């Protein structure tokens, strides 16, 4: 451990303790071979350091207060300015042109680009209900800002053709017409929005019997999608 502390405030306190009137250096000046004049000078410099520290703390507090006042003033100003921009937008909308934006030197709102087609359904999960109906759930990454997506669900058994079995506005569908006695069915799910259609995806579901004799429904192994609870 060094003689003098490392941080500045501790250094001030160290010197104050020793050089102050009545302190060990002042009391024992001759015995420790430190001239009384030097002890007095050290005490004076400790007082100056303490005063500088006090001013420093006050300046920090003042700077923090000034910073908060600055932030608040800018926030109030910006909110009021945007209220005026709203008036400019209203004027441009009434006039049906961008002249108010030009005169105000405010950029007009960008024309929104066309929204792309719906996404592709993926990560299908299935659950077989006690009544034999099959719950299908999936994910689908649709373009930002899009709405009104409908999911068309088709089904085929074996190598037959796909037939429509229903549609859903959610990423979920319950098939209540699963053919009895089939070993598997394949579902085709396609996202539709207005006149745009996303890429369809096919999922094969295998039926079987569990260890307790209950009927099971699982996705074909190559699709590697987990089963969900009913």
What structural category characterises the helix and strand content?
alpha+beta
Distance between the termini: 68 Å
* Strand residues, percent: 15-25%
> What integer value in Å does the Rg equal?
39 Å
Listing every helix as H and every strand as E from the N terminus to the C terminus, the arrangement reads: HHHHHEEEEEEEEE
Q: Helix segment count?
A: 5
Give helix % range.
25-40%
Number of domains: 2
Low-pLDDT runs:
224-230
Spatial shape: elongated
Q: How many beta strands in the DSSP annotation?
A: 9
Largest sheet: 6 strands, antiparallel
Description:
- The protein is α+β, with helices and mostly antiparallel strands and 230 residues long.
- It folds into 2 domains: 1-111, no CATH class; 122-221, Immunoglobulin-like.
- The chain is 37% helix and 25% strand.
- The chain is built from 5 helices and 9 strands, in the order H-H-H-H-H-E-E-E-E-E-E-E-E-E.
- It has helices at 8-19, 24-27, 29-32, 36-95, 99-104, and strands at 122-128, 134-139, 150-157, 163-168, 172-175, 184-193, 196-197, 201-209, 215-219.
- The strands form 2 sheets. Strands 3, 4, 6, 7, 8 and 9 form a 6-stranded antiparallel sheet that branches.
- Strand 6 and strand 7 (196-197) form a beta hairpin.
- Helix 1 runs antiparallel to helix 4 (36-95).
- The longest helix is centred in the N-terminal third of the chain and has 60 residues, at 36-95.
- The radius of gyration is 39 Å and the shape is elongated.
- Residues 224-230 have low confidence and may be disordered.
